[in-house]
Amino acid sequence: MIYRRCAAEATLLWNAMTKMHTYKLLNSASLSRPRIYRHMASSITAPGDAADVAGAPAKTARSGIAGGVKTLPQVDEPLETGLSPSRSRALRKKRLAIDELSALGFLKTRGYTTADEYNLEELHEALKQQNLYETKRFFSTDNLGVEQNVLYVTAKYQTGSRPREIFFFREGSVVFWNCNDIETNNVLSFLRNFERESYVSTLVHGESEVMPYTYIASTAVDVEGDLVAECSDMNVASRAFFQNGKFYVTQDSDNFLYKYTFSNAIAQSIKLGIWEATLDRYIDSMEYLTEDLKRGRRLRISRASMLRKTGELFALRHSINLSSDLLDAPDFYWDREELEVLYLQVCSYFSITRRTKVMNEKINHCVELAELVSHNLNDAHHIRLEWMIIILIMVEVGFEILHFVEGALHQDKTMHASPYPISEHSA
């Protein structure tokens, strides 16, 4: 009997020790997991935020905090999917290794969109007075030729063997060819005087594009050994092509159309990036309304503010679908087949068609939200007007009752005040 009791106690003690050991293992695993998450989170935060992430491990599991930590991707998911679209484009630019290509003879072309529109006429006159750049072309790209919308200039004073060129687009974009950082910043500052609806500097530099290009011989072949295609409207070999994220062009005196085509595609991509950032800010500004709708709270926006928000949304949709050439190739390339092929290749590299489709889908969802909020606000306004009418009717009824009571009291006092009331028998 004593033996059985000792054996039972030993079994219970062994089970308790096993559970205690398992609990310690689970605790050690849970304590090691935050260190792994902190290491992953530090790889997707800005360098200045690394100290904040390490000092506050509990915040790394959330998104949208001040430290800028994004939601962590799954284990089998690429790290770029947890980043914003602009951050993904930045990683793609790094993969190009432009700085390394510079050692191989590649130059840089930089594109910026700084405003909604440039006053090219005043800019043209100011550049003449500045006497630093020579105007090569000031032309129109539409079939009617009503308005000149592209200004192409070159630097008068050379600093190397390669020319320095700039394309100004009336839509608010500028593309630099072989210009260093100092010259680029000086021109961007100079452009401020000719801009309409300027963008903030952080947005301008955050949505910029940098692409490599190089000059080749007129009879050059591409990387795969194929001959460059023959031009459809000229009896000479093609003088430019785009391959593997790099632009190749001959150093002829009449190659500006190829550079314009490449610059046009870059400008379209940057302008689309600006609109993407604008739509993202719009979505963030409307996020609290979806939370109010979900929780059944009173909407914290007025009808006038909602009307302005709806106007912003339709103005953005108009800019994307009607005022730009994002949905189709510009008319300028209809009778220039070779330039159109080059333009479409660069646009495909920047995924302009897919990004435009995604933006339109987002705008459609925002329009539905704006219509829902507007209807809700209008219903609340109508209900408020109905209650005001009901209250006014009740006030009028109250006044009528007072008048009736007051008349009855006055008649009663008159009858009691007369000592000889007149009756029908006395008459």
Provide a concise account of the structure shown.
The protein is about 55% helix and about 15% strand. It has about 425 residues and is an alpha+beta fold.
Structure report:
The chain has 427 residues and is of the alpha+beta class. 54% of the residues lie in helices and 13% in strands. It has helices at 2-43, 50-55, 85-96, 98-102, 120-130, 181-191, 201-206, 256-295, 303-321, 337-349, 352-417; strands spanning 107-113, 115-118, 133-139, 150-155, 165-169, 173-177, 195-198, 209-216, 240-243, 246-250. The strands form 2 sheets. It has an 8-stranded mixed sheet with strand order 3-4-5-6-1-8-10-9, sandwiched between helices. The radius of gyration is 36 Å and the shape is elongated.
Topology (elements, then pairings):
Blueprint lengths: L1 H42 L6 H6 L29 H12 L1 H5 L4 E7 L1 E4 L1 H11 L2 E7 L10 E6 L9 E5 L3 E5 L3 H11 L3 E4 L2 H6 L2 E8 L23 E4 L2 E5 L5 H40 L7 H19 L15 H13 L2 H66 L10
Helix pairs in contact: 8-9, 8-10, 8-11, 9-11
